[in-house]
Amino acid sequence: MPEQEDDDLFYIENGLYVFTEKYHLKRGYCCRSGCRHCPYGYKKDKDERTGKKD
Q: For the whole model, what pTM was predicted?
């Protein structure tokens, strides 16, 4: 079976998909969700609904 280019775009942790830095760079923009591997430097400091810090 040939190696697929997309093999390292995500991994599964506790049943959830975790997208890698490579995935975010391939997508091409920041979604402002505070992703663990965000290459754009976005940090989700405040809850956008309440304005309170996490």
A: 0.66
Query: Is a pLDDT exceeding 50 seen at residue 1?
Result: no
- The count of domains in the chain is 1
Query: Is 48 in a helix, a strand, or coil?
Result: coil
> Residues near 25 by Cβ (< 8 Å), separated by ≥ 6?
39
Segment holding 23, helix H or strand E: helix 21-27
Token couple for 17: 């998909």
CB atoms within 10 A of CB 22: 16
Whole-number mean pLDDT of the chain? Answer: 83
Instruction: Write out the residue range of the structural domain in which residue 9 sits.
Output: 1-54
> Is the pLDDT higher at 12 or at 4?
12
Taking the alpha carbons at both ends of the chain, their separation in whole angstroms is 45
